[in-house]
Write a structure and sequence with these properties.
two-stranded antiparallel sheet, alpha/beta, 204 residues, single chain, 3-stranded parallel beta sheet, 7 strands
Length: 204
């Protein structure tokens, strides 16, 4: 539905740097906050703390987009809680230190409905209530045609319509009817896939 693109466009219009972090069930707090890493130019076994992207953005007042929020583990959700509530900080036990968020720091989160599977789950209400919730409807064929025609004016509309129709039919066969492609599911066939296809045709 273009959720990531929407946040990216808002950040660009506001002149704010945006850090996008894709979450999964494998994401750990060290991926967000940081960890001890081998020291560049240091001796064997010499480590130093290095901030991860989220912690850096939080301190510098940047915007962060957490994508696929409902794939994150409970540990990650709990770790994020303290910077979303009245405390406005995160505590890193490895350093024995709390980091306070910059006043300009903003968090955006995006997710697909949990019924789409792939490990997605419903988030706790106590966590969701920390956000302003915005529901974005799925793009229609006409929406996708308008976007594609704007980004790739070199293709005529009939070509684009055929590609969009194929994408929708593929989605229906694989995702709705399960005619094939069951291994590795769930699959999605969306605007991103169409953009990749058009990019390939454009570079040929």
């Amino acid at each position: 539905a273009g959720k990531t693109s929407l946040v990216t466009a808002v950040a660009a219009a506001a002149g704010r740097p945006l850090t996008r972090i894709n979450l999964s069930d494998q994401t750990e707090l060290v991926d967000l906050f940081g960890s001890d890493m081998p020291l560049e130019g240091g001796g064997p076994g010499e480590f130093a703390w290095r901030d991860a992207a989220f912690l850096t953005a939080m301190q510098q007042g940047e915007w962060v987009l957490l994508d696929e929020m409902n794939l994150a583990s409970q540990t990650v959700l709990e770790g994020l809680n303290s910077c979303l509530d009245h405390r406005g900080s995160v505590y890193v036990p490895e350093l024995g230190r709390a980091f306070t968020k910059h006043p300009e720091f903003r968090i955006f989160a995006a997710q697909n409905p949990h019924h789409q599977g792939g490990g997605r789950k419903g988030l706790p209400k106590s966590f969701l209530n920390r956000f302003i919730k915005v529901h974005v409807e799925e793009l229609t064929g006409e929406d996708i045609l308008a976007i594609s025609a704007h980004l790739y004016p070199q293709f005529n509309r009939e070509q684009l319509r055929k590609m969009i129709r194929f994408n929708f039919e593929l989605h229906h066969e694989v995702v709705v009817k399960h005619s094939f492609g069951r291994v590795g599911a769930p699959w999605e066939f969306n605007l991103r896939d169409l953009m990749r296809w058009l990019d390939l045709l454009h570079t040929d």
